[in-house]
Amino acid sequence: MTIIRSIFKFQTVILIGIFSLLLSSCTEDFDLTEPWKVIPVMYAMLNRFDTAQYVRIEKAFVSEDLSAAEIAKNPDSLYYKSAKVTLVNKTANKSYIMTKVDASNENYMRHEGDFATTPNFLYKVKTKDIILRGQDDIVIELDRGDGSKIVSSQIKMIKDVRLYEADTFIRELGFDPTLNQTYTWLPGSDAQVFNFRLNIQVEERNSTDGSIVKKNFSTNILSNGIEKNATINGKVFYDLLSSNLTANPAISRSILNVSLDLKSGSKELRDFLTIVNANTGLTASQEIPRYSNISEGFGIVYSTCFWIKNYSVSPKTINFLRTLDQTKNLNF
């Protein structure tokens, strides 16, 4: 069976969306050459601005006697009992033993599905306790604890990605429904996949009961793209508000802030997405191919970078909110 996992937003306290990762964690389509076979599975998204780095280590399996669905419900079949996971910074010549934690206790719940949901083991190290910099060569090592060969994956941490310098001095954003605004970033060659998102925070004040509520709305401008720029049509701003808010004479509204959210992924993520996209079109086999940058088994380890900036909105934008047909009854 093929399990679809979304991990671009995996461990972070910042926000991220969204790059998707598909990873085979159990399968029944191997050529069986032995009654039981255990295959290591490793995946991680490393970001040096996260409060902690996490690695998921599991086992894929084949059996002549039991179905994959039956095995997947048994936690003992998913996890190595005596595994040791090490994060190695080759550039700094430092090694860090990662701690096994139950992610359920850290507010990372496993979705209901084919796999046992508890315990939900991950391996963790706090970012403040390690050296982790842009361009550092990082290796994740798995010692399965059974004397077998070390499983590893080596990547390079990507550098920070920010908007083009001229855009960083902007303090307020204006949205003209008839105009486009293009934003450009200048990443190094190591950042190769991008998501760009527009976020709006609205405050509502209800004169009937005196309540004050904050609401957040977002829309993707670029998803899993390789472009180094993205264009926002001003109409998108007003469409997002009109589609999520309802006119109510008792409610007055204001824009607290607007933010631009840029997320970048390394070459490993781009390679994965390229393989998947090449095999999911109308003429493809519709089977998701396996991508792995692990020395043995399946999985993906890659580096990410997140950048977000808050802005106020221009007086002209407020005027548009109050006069355009689609938003004039929303009481901004």
Q: Low-confidence spans: pLDDT under 50, at least 5 residues? A: 1-33, 112-116
N- and C-termini, Cα separation: 50 Å
Structural class: mainly beta
By DSSP, the count of extended strands is 17
Estimated share of beta-strand residues: 35-45%
Tally of structural domains: 2
Radius of gyration: 23 Å
Describe how the helices and strands are arranged.
Elements: E1 3-5, E2 21-23, E3 36-46, E4 52-63, H1 68-72, H2 75-78, E5 84-89, E6 94-97, E7 99-102, E8 121-126, E9 137-143, E10 151-156, H3 165-168, E11 172-173, E12 180-184, E13 191-206, E14 212-225, E15 229-233, H4 234-244, E16 251-266, H5 267-278, E17 298-313, H6 315-323
Parallel strand pairs: 3-17, 11-17
Antiparallel strand pairs: 1-2, 3-4, 4-8, 5-6, 5-9, 7-8, 9-10, 12-15, 13-14, 13-16, 16-17
Concise summary:
With about 325 residues, the chain is mostly beta strands.
Give your account of this protein's structure.
By secondary structure, the protein is mainly β. The chain has two domains: 3-159 and 266-304, no CATH class; 165-264 and 308-330. It is 14% helix and 41% strand. It is built from six helices and 17 strands. It has helices at 68-72, 75-78, 165-168, 234-244, 267-278, 315-323, and strands at residues 3-5, 21-23, 36-46, 52-63, 84-89, 94-97, 99-102, 121-126, 137-143, 151-156, 172-173, 180-184, 191-206, 212-225, 229-233, 251-266, 298-313. Strands 3, 4, 7, 8, 11, 13, 14, 16 and 17 form a nine-stranded mixed β-sheet that branches. A hairpin with a 5-residue loop joins β3 and β4. The relative contact order is 0.17.
